User: What shape does this take?
Amino acid sequence: MLANLGQLFRYRALIQSLVARELKARYRGSALGVVWSFVNPLLLLLIYTFVFTVVMPGAHPPELEPFALFMFCGILPWTWFSSSLLESANVLIAGGNLIKKVLFPAEVLPIVSVLAGLVHFCLGLPILAAFLIYYRVPLWPTDLLWFPVVVATQLVLTLGLALLVSALTVHFRDVRDLLANLLTLWFFATPIIYPISQAPARVRRLLDLNPFTHLAIAYQEVLFRPGPFAQVNRLAAVAAVSIVIFFVGYFVFDRLRDTLAEEI
Amino acid sequence: MNAIEVRNVRKVYRRYNRRKQFATLKSALLSGSVMRDLQPDAIFEALKGVSFDVEAGKTFGIVGRNGSGKSTMLKLIAGIGKPTTGTVRVNGRVSALIELGAGFHPEISGRENVYINGLMLGLSRRDIAKRFDDIVRFAELEPFIDAPVKTYSSGMYMRLGFAVAINVDPDVLLVDEVLAVGDESFTHKCLDRFAEFRRRGRTILLVTHALDLVTRFCDEALWLDGGTAKAFGDPRRVIDAYLMDVAGAENIELAAQYPEKPDPGSRIPDPGRDPADMFQANEGRWGSREVEITSVEMIGASGQPAHLFQSGEQVEIRLHVRAHQRVSDFAFGIGIFNAEGICCYGTNTVIDGGAPDELAGEGLVIFSVEALALVDGTYKLDVAVHRQDGAPYDYHRLLHTFRVKSLRKDVGIFRPPHRWSFSGGIRMAGL
Assistant: This one.
């Protein structure tokens, strides 16, 4: 397993090229091209702003103004997380020809999905930054140092789950549909469109079991809430869990590797 | 040194039945039967313990029928998939021409695809940059290299795939039937590349149905049949053994396909038909039936009824005849037609000068051919018993099919027994 992980390093140029290809191919033929990566989150943010300032202005605690921006801090990373997992569920089957006909480590494919999602996430950040500046949300300078740590934690977590999901889908095709519904549930079980403080204490304990809860809160702390980052312990715990999940995911993938070419 | 070592390789594929495929995870979880559902319903043994070595620098051919395990073997050697038991060892870098351009993405340019494909095959970015011009030149795609691959014709696509794979410059090249596609000139180019490979002492493993390629190129060959090695060694010997076996199987198949036609009650018995029409007529049977041909057999050199013969083989055509009444005006005829319906040969006892005396009860007519001087192909037989003026008692029109096999690829219909000889300043071996 560790040898395979090491071997993966040799394929970094391939991973890099495939991510670039993924991004290029996605917008090839569309008039706006890569501009969509900026426009998509922008439109999303405008829609949320419209809903929470015009349609239902009183649905959230007043200290979380502008609320759309608060939600956006969670939705942007969530979009990366969920789209990566959904894509990973498909990627081995879609790339079946490759896995059956070319010798190369199959885990490259889900990893590419996750990294392509990361690039999209990063392309959405300028929009977020522009709005943070526009609304004059005070940013704590030391918080910004924590931001890459949070992103890295999410990356490890997402990679682990993506590996797990991609390998399992090959054997159990209904993981795909299961996953789509699970992600909807997961979204609402994460304090993204509501602050964690609004959840009743009993539910809160359940929410705390969800690793993405802590990631979402960390994003909100770093980007939105005033004051220094105070979630170091939570973040450390999530990082530890993420690393465990990554190794579990890689282990499962590695075990199923030899059967992939036959089952696709 | 051996480039490839295959030891007792078995490969078992598991098959699950339909119900279980539908059930999958949900029911597996609900009924707690994950482990049971993971048990396959049937196993298919694609390879049943195959061992062989390929010496470094040799060109090695694998032949066999569809489904004999050739491609499975190739994939195991390429490292795509692992043998169920046994070991496969390959010394050096492998490149597999299994499916050309398997990793191409249609939306991006040929240039980018070359890079990505090369990286997948294990080249570094620098390697590819160094070989890029060679690759494009070989693929003859200079003007199109920056166009998206989806605009390529299938030939262009394939050429690019081949060009990348061959430029990986592997120690061991695995080729699976990729030469079957592509035009004549590109095939020649590929063969030239293979020859160059051989000269540089690289190992090539070729899986193909093009048997002449194996005899021409390979130093050794393996014949796989139903997952076992049937023959191994000198390619000419292996191919001959394989062809003999195929011929035998075809014989059985032909016999099943063209059973001796019983009296076809529904088949247009058309007694009034002018026999002069026989060259236009489709298959069928007609005649007044005072005399009947009850069955037709062809006997080859083996002495057994057969439908498949080697070109030049001694053949007997046997007509079993039954007369329902005594006749004195009768003649027997034979016609051989090729698949295009051209009459290769036709004669009857009148033409050959026979004078009929009496035909009563049952009898056997044997038409002996000393050497069946026909080229490779499928042929049909007309047999008839008729009056001397041609009015048929029983005419079988193209009802009997046989096949002629030949290892030589000569053309035409008729192969006269022949010999080449040379004199003066001409030297030629092999004839």
Observations:
- Residues 235-257 of chain B form the longest helix (23 residues).
